[in-house]
Request: fold
Amino acid sequence: MTSFFRRRIHLGIPALLLILFAVLSLMSDGYFGGADNISHYLISHFAFRYPPLFLNSWGRPLYTLVSAPFAQFGLQGAKLLNIILGVWTAWFAFRIARMLKIEPAMAAFAFVCFTPLYFAMMPTALTEILFSFIVILSIFLFLKGRYVASAIVISLLPFARAEGYVMLPLFLIALLWVRQARAIPFLATGIILFSIAGGFYYRDLLWLVNRFPYPVNYTHPIYNKAGSLWHFLGLRSFVIGLPLEILFIAGMGAMLRDLLSRDHAIRKNARMLAILVFTPFVVYFAFHSFLFWKALGGSMGLERVMAAVLPLAALISLKGFSDLAALLRKSGILSGSFMVFVIGAVLVTPFITYKTPCPLSPEEETIRRATAWLQASPYAHRLIFYTDNNVPYYLKADPYRKNPAECSLFGDSKFLDTIPCGSVLVWDAHFGANESKIPLDSLLGKRHQKVINYFRPAVPWITFGGGWYDCYITVAMGAGEVADNRAIRDSLQEALDAASCYKTLYLNTFENPGDAWDQSYLTADTVHRGKKAYRMDSRTEYSPGICHPVSTLPPESDNQELRVSLYVNIPVIGHDKNTLLVISFEHRNKSYSYTAVKLNDRKEGAGRWNRVTIGTTVPKFLSPDDQVKVYIWNPGKQLFYIDDLRVYLTK
Reply:
């Protein structure tokens, strides 16, 4: 029985892994990798209803073809496909390790599935896992001597992810190395098949080139920020984790030593490991590092792209693990302890690195609340335009149906005036401000678009592009109807702030003589609410505010947010004026937590009242005598007015 268990344990491990990841997927509200999960899922889910989606270049035709049956069971079905492919990838990595005499080969299951980023990516609807499966399967077939089959399989790689085009020449070199030139023509199999399939539909045999979804000879209009050449190297703790990183370095050393070995069998295995495993990983890693460094191909420097080759890195790490364990083999206790310690560290690392089960991101949680409100509102059955693909997913709507359309992805701010009267737009600060090219000030400035609700994350969240994330729902009004959207927005934000406030520390309405140091600062010339406001001018470098010992804050303020809101009216915007609304926590008059917003940077326009808010997490105090200060600093002695200054703690 014991010997049977030892012989068959490699069959039980994949089953356990399937169960583990399926349970984690079902327990997770969210999905690693953001809204691209939903975009791929929607394409796959509706592909049978709209067959041209099978040839959608961005969706990756091979991924859509494989995932479409699973996606009929919902997002969990699409995630299950990746779980199966990920475990299957680990299985072939185990087989490859055995073929290359890397023992204990069964550790490949842990090294592949529990590489931190790969662990997070398996329960997703993204394409990297399919890519990794094709690479590993091709290597397995290559080592089995099935060179034609290996070439056919790897030829499909560009249709799982576009980087596959970079990997094809590496397999061409590998086939030449083993003198299997007859298999080389089969590297074109995927390109030929998909060119013919798309050629019939698009009437263009070169559709793979003409419809390539990423910029090749021009800079992406949105994702064009160059980064560090070492960006992905700096993310290694999130990508591979410290235990496997150390073993990867050891594996490189062991591989180099074996390449110089006098033993032909050892040298041959090392060559295969170097050519088929190490080199593709390094080339892929270098390729993405270069793209991000030079801002090419729309690269955003997303760490998730590295998941596509992490099983290769896991095999190199396994080589290092094998050789280190061999050094301790003479001491059974040390060898066993080392193996248990390392595998335990590998298994634990992803749980430390990523939240498990995966929660919704602040953006996704906000969109879910917004769509839940929309479904329960009188606007539920209107034509809905959206900027985030999560909207049709949460609404359970068909984004591809026409005549009549249920909902439609909105493209550009210049078309805002063309939205039919009565239609609804769900705008978000991530995709709406970037991919749909609708800055917030453009949306609010369209007076025939009326804001009907506003949503934001429970904790303020900075989205792509550096701005605060929020979501607006608007309705297109009829001819002659106009709306003051900024006033509506301010009212909605004020209501949200009131709902989240559990302790007001300071409120100044500037209605009473004692609300200013001198009554001459109070004015009735321009007022937001009530009869008076406070005038800041050449006499006032600092506004009224608070300067309290932190010991006066409620004990429960720890780990809460301190927020400030006020209304500001600047007659003439002075972009050269460094006028700031400030929150400062100070120890002996030296700030250790400083948060500020420039009042002149706001785009709502001069000569009108605008609501300004700022917030920061209450820090750990250095001393009970520390002070918290809130004030406006007006070093340029700029003229403007403020009203209803409020300082409060949020729930």
